[in-house]
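Case study 2.
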Amino acid sequence: MKRTTLSVGAAVGVLNLLALTSVNANGNETAPLPTPPPPSSGTPSVPSPAAVPVAPASDTPSVLIPGAGLPKMPTPPTPGVLQPTGVVPPAPPKTPGVAGPSGPTVPPIMKPPKTPGVVGPVSPTTVDVDRASLITANSIGGIKLGMTMREAKRVASNATFERETDGDGVPLMWVSDEHGFAAELYYEYDYDVPEAPVRDDAVINFMSAWGEDAETAEGAKIDMRISDLERIYGEVKEIWMSEIESREYVEFANQPSGFSFRVFSEADSAGVYRTEERVTTLYASDAKLISIEVLGRFITNEESIGGIKLYDTDSDVTSAMATHSLGRLEKGESWVSDAIGAKIQTWNFPSVGLSVDMMSYEESEPKTVMSIRMTSPSLLKTAEGIGIGSDKTVAIQAYDEFINGMEEQEFFEGQDAHLVGSIYDGMVIYFDEGKVVEIFLGPSAE
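Prediction:
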């Protein structure tokens, strides 16, 4: 398969697009995620340079900078225009192979047949995949995010490593072997000398799989059609096209976190879009997967403690009190954070060893969760099943697929702590004598 080099801007665009307002299957906008206030050095909810999954090196590192994402442009459905329901309204007949008023003829639009007796999307199941070809949320074969080039070359000793650049001139390492393994590895580099040789200690911070033998645990493979992928991950949630490079990505209803699926069609585009739009759920019959991007799982998007997640509203926390038996609530005095200018109030649940910092800019605004802290005598568990008293090794392994920042080596110097994510937007697990004694979810620095 001919490979088109991926730009870092497009990759980060995917991350940002996932955080913006989305369009559901009925063409309606869904509410955006609550956004915490911006601190002076970075916003906890939006990865700042320190929040991106990179590890520091002696030189200035390459950082995937947020901001390349493109706003989606959903508009209300227009009668007589393609609606994102998988059905094309009647249109005047066209002469085969002749372009009509709406542009060149494209392959027919596809939606997969429903499985008899099955209602709604089916949860993904795993298949038996060769470990050397397996793509996970943080790895391609044996190569993992956060590895150095030296480590990657060691685990892929039979592969060829070639330095290339993408369309933006950003250096990357193209890795391939005779068995069909093919991947792009983006790594830390010196902005001032982008053409410099790749250092062995350069840390890999983004990857994309192109090899036809690569496969996810659920069975998604390169060159698989969107209609087949829907049978694995459920119906298409949306397909979108980047504005500058016209690259297209698809998201499914049951898509695992940590992945981004790039698609392609021999027609004008994989997605079938209304005029002036770049978001749809319709696709050409030959639309297929051409690359699987490995982004890593972000802890603040997934983790919860006692049924409470970061950026939950005060009403969400109140609901969790009942569903998770959090006991008596004690509200502290409000105070103003000089760093972010927000009003902070701590909500304590003493019987379960839980405290939640709630924030808002105005008294009239709903408060949202800024951070969550769990200590003894809590018997609560995180979404990954870790709690006070859990074994240190088990706790660290539980978060192996999540992006892990390297700031912990200096920020938590002298403490027995493990950082998942970033100090600006992550989770810290504290240990004593090999056991978990405290878990903090939220920004450790401002």
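Residues 8-19 form the longest helix (12 residues).
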